[in-house]
Each structure stands twice: as C-alpha cells, then as structure tokens.
C-alpha cells in the first residue's frame, strides 16, 4: 500500500474529526475494509497516528473557547490517568480480545452517531464549568473514557454527551474533549510504542496528513452540513464492526497462544 493512502486517510479523518465526527471509528473502518494492518495493531496505530493532529486541535480550541479552569484541568487529568491505565492493559491484550473489543467499540460508535443524527443527544445548558459532586462525577466518567479510548472507543461523542447532560454548554465540550485526548494520547502512545503494538508506517502517514486536515477544518471550512455524512459513517462503521467481530469468531492457527 502506498504511503499516500495513509496520508490521505489522516487528512480526511482529522478534517472531519475537527468538525466533531471523530477520527477513530472512521479510520478503523477504512483500515479494516482495506485490511491494511493486523487487528492487534489497530489501537496503538490509532493513538500514535492521531496524536499530533489532536494536539493541534487542542491548541486551537482551548485558546478559542472559554471553559472554567478547574473543570478543564480536572477532567483532562482524569482522562490522562485513565489512558495510562488503559494503554498498559490494551498493549498486552491478545488479538482475539482486541478484535472483540474493537468490534463492540465500533457498534457503540455507530449507536452514538445515530443518536446524534436523530437528535437524541441532550441539548445542554449554558454553564462553562462544573462544581461539587457533579464535577466529581464528570471526573470519574472521563477517567473511564480515557481508559476505553485505548481500545479504540473515541472520547469525543461520549464526552460531549456527558457535559451536555450535566448542564454545560456543548461548545465547552470541545476544549475539554480535545485537551483530554491531546494529553492522554501521547502517554498511551508511549506504551504502545514500547510494546511494538502499532504500525509505524501507517501512524506516520496519519500524522502527516492529519495536521493539515485539522488546520483546514478549523480555519477555512469551520462548519459543514454533515447530516448525510453521518449516515454514511454509520453504515461504514457497522460494516467494519461486523468484519471485526467475524474475524474474532473465526479460528486461526496464530491465535492458539491467545486462547491458552
């Protein structure tokens, strides 16, 4: 496969990621559809490859959108701690476990996309921060989201749902979710790199293409009518989920050690 395909994938995935679609599910769907890398390398490749574009997003949105510092810092710190724990576990998981986990993750992503399309996601309130027990709850949930992200469950949509349910302005979710990912992904990526559980060539291509995709979306396009694209993503993600789960159910000689 030409490296140009990885670069283009990084550009497209991060362009729409910046507009709120998320990059993990779409990247996974394409890689699985094209059978580009082994399934067990997918979580690490997603985290390593999308780290720099996500950091770029975080810099842009944390400087452009106001959110109370305590809420931002505490939720980001929780996500980083969860990501550190999650990466240590996922980087050692056998292939079949990763296939099942990512298959379920894709189904969850598809469900969240459908909820967004039909307007089930909460509208949110006007608050720019949280306090007391509500903040503690948000911190705990973001910790769990950070851990799950290492398995390929994107943090953006669940985090947006979380802050909206708690009465915050949904716009305030952008710096929280982007800063959370920007801080936890490098931490998790180091673990995947040390365990050699990522595809270096693909990750480099995603990073190279991803940064200009972020910049184009943030500064030039800014918004698009994405309703039709959401439905397309749902179809593609469901297809990838079926492929992933079917792979997990098929016997394979190389999985003998995994089942011991």
Description:
With 260 residues, the chain is an all-alpha fold. It has one domain (3-252). The chain is 73% helix and 0% strand. The protein has 11 helices and no strands. Helix 1 (3-18) packs across helix 10, helix 4 (51-64) packs antiparallel against helix 9 and helix 8 runs antiparallel to helix 9 (173-194). It is globular.
What quaternary form is this? single chain
Give the count of helical stretches.
11
Can you summarize the main beta sheet? none
Question: Which spans of ≥5 residues are poorly predicted at pLDDT below 50?
Answer: 253-260
Question: Which key terms come to mind for this protein?
Answer:
260 residues, mainly alpha
What's the helix and strand layout?
Layout: H1 3-18, H2 24-34, H3 42-49, H4 51-64, H5 69-90, H6 95-118, H7 132-149, H8 156-165, H9 173-194, H10 200-221, H11 227-249
Helix pairs in contact: 1-10, 2-11, 3-9, 3-10, 4-9, 4-10, 5-7, 5-9, 6-11, 7-8, 8-9
In short:
The protein has helices spanning 3-18, 24-34, 42-49, 51-64, 69-90, 95-118, 132-149, 156-165, 173-194, 200-221, 227-249. It has 260 residues and is mainly alpha-helical. Helix 6 (95-118) runs antiparallel to helix 11 (227-249), helix 7 runs antiparallel to helix 8 and helix 8 packs antiparallel against helix 9 (173-194).
């Amino acid at each position: 496969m030409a490296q140009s395909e990885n670069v283009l994938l990084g550009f497209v995935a991060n362009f729409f990621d910046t507009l709120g679609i998320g990059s993990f599910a779409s990247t996974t769907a394409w890689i699985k559809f094209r059978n580009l890398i082994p399934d067990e390398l997918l979580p690490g490749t997603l985290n390593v490859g999308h780290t720099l574009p996500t950091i770029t997003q975080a810099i842009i949105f944390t400087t452009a959108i106001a959110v109370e510092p305590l809420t931002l810092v505490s939720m980001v710190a929780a996500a980083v701690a969860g990501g550190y724990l999650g990466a240590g576990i996922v980087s050692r998981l056998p292939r079949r476990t990763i296939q099942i986990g990512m298959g379920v993750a894709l189904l969850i992503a598809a469900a969240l996309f459908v909820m967004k399309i039909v307007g089930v996601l909460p509208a949110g309130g006007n608050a720019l921060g949280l306090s007391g027990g509500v903040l503690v709850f948000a911190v705990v949930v973001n910790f769990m989201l950070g851990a799950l992200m290492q398995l390929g469950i994107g943090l953006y949509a669940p985090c947006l749902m979380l802050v909206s349910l708690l009465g915050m302005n949904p716009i305030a979710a952008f710096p929280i979710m982007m800063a959370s990912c920007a801080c936890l992904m490098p931490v998790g990526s180091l673990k995947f790199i040390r365990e050699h559980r990522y595809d270096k060539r693909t990750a480099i291509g995603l990073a190279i293409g991803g940064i200009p995709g972020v910049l184009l979306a943030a500064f030039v396009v800014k918004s698009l009518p994405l309703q039709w694209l959401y439905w397309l993503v749902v179809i593609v993600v469901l297809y990838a989920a079926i492929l992933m789960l079917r792979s997990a159910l098929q016997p394979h000689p190389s999985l003998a050690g995994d089942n011991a």
